Amino acid sequence: MKSFKKHIPHYISLFAIFFAGVLGFYLFSYDKSFQIGVAIALAGSYVSWGIIHHVIHKDIYLSVILEYVAVAILGLVMILSLILRG
Length: 86
Description:
The protein has 3 helices and no strands. By secondary structure, the chain is mainly alpha-helical. The protein starts with a helix and ends with a helix. The chain crosses the membrane at residues 12-28, 34-52, 64-84.
């Protein structure tokens, strides 16, 4: 529990990034190209957050970076498939 409390500010910022992404999708629901931009920015922000988080805690490895990139790409593909359907 002590370790979790130490990371709370980092997770709050991650939540804020995702909240801003959801808000962007809602506010720009009429513009698919802007939603694509929001999705790409959200994926990039997630990867950046992960790298910064691990650099601060001195446990950054190539495998960690690749994991964040893989999750971001998977999420981006899912979001883009929803935006571009139909």
